[in-house]
Design a protein that fits this description.
Elements (H helix, E strand, L loop, with lengths): L10 H7 L6 E4 L5 E5 L15 E2 L12 E2 L5 E5 L2 H8 L5 E2 L7 E5 L3 E5 L7 H4 L11 H14 L5 E5 L6 E6 L13 E4 L6 H11 L2 E2 L1
Parallel strand pairs: 6-12, 8-9
Antiparallel strand pairs: 1-8, 2-7, 3-4, 5-10, 7-11, 9-10
Helix pairs in contact: 1-4, 2-5
Length: about 210
């Protein structure tokens, strides 16, 4: 029988549970974070800025109803290229190198994350949930995201297991005390760049995606 994710506990209860030292994951400048992002069309968001329209995705912490929520932005990244591609093209399972003029950008960020992947502690279980947090319905995981965000304003976001690659990914929630993004990216290429053709084809093969 499938494991169901219960609703999140109250903010007060989460604060009682707290976060243990081994459940934090500091992300510093010694690791690259990858992001695939469109650069043309409607609703384009720069690589180093938050999306304020939502909630849409798994750990969007924006309140309902869906719409524009200034100051409540959300940002997703991945620890490896395969995961960045898998997440960006999850709806169609087709890596489209042309539509929206997408780019693959690598950067070094500074953030403190709560680990909900199971790699560092077992926080979801301690908090009254379980590891279905990474695969339950978006409606339910967004409720968890909103509660965690309000309970722990010192946390910049979450480290989780991406549903489509099974590898680490991160979500950042907009905080106003500091900007986690660097002034410049380490690397940034158009997905249509022929220098990426082999790398994208290999990633698509591993993921079972198509490429156009």
């Amino acid at each position: 029988m499938a494991v169901m994710l219960p609703p999140p506990p109250s903010i007060a209860r989460l604060r009682e549970v707290g976060i243990r030292d081994d459940e934090y994951v500091p992300v510093a400048g010694d690791a690259l974070v990858w992001r695939v992002h469109r650069t043309s069309g409607v609703h384009v968001v720069p690589w180093n800025d938050y999306r304020i329209h939502g909630p849409l995705l798994r750990f969007d912490q924006q309140p309902l109803p869906r719409g524009e929520h200034p100051g409540r932005g959300v940002w997703y990244g991945a620890i490896d290229v395969d995961t960045a591609l898998a997440e960006a093209f999850q709806d169609t399972r087709v890596i489209d190198r042309q539509a929206g003029t997408p780019r693959l950008t690598a950067m070094r960020i500074s953030a403190t994350l709560l680990d909900v992947s199971g790699d560092h502690g077992a926080w979801p279980t301690r908090a009254g949930g379980n590891f279905a947090l990474t695969r339950a319905s978006r409606t339910r995981t967004q409720r968890w995201a909103r509660t965690i965000d309000r309970a722990f304003p010192h946390v910049d976001g979450l480290r989780y297991r991406a549903r489509w690659s099974g590898r680490p990914a991160i979500v950042l929630w907009q905080r106003h005390r500091r900007d986690p993004f660097p002034g410049e990216a380490e690397h940034s290429w158009l997905l249509s760049d022929q220098r990426l053709a082999g790398r994208i084809a290999a990633a698509a093969d591993r993921l079972g995606y198509d490429v156009v």
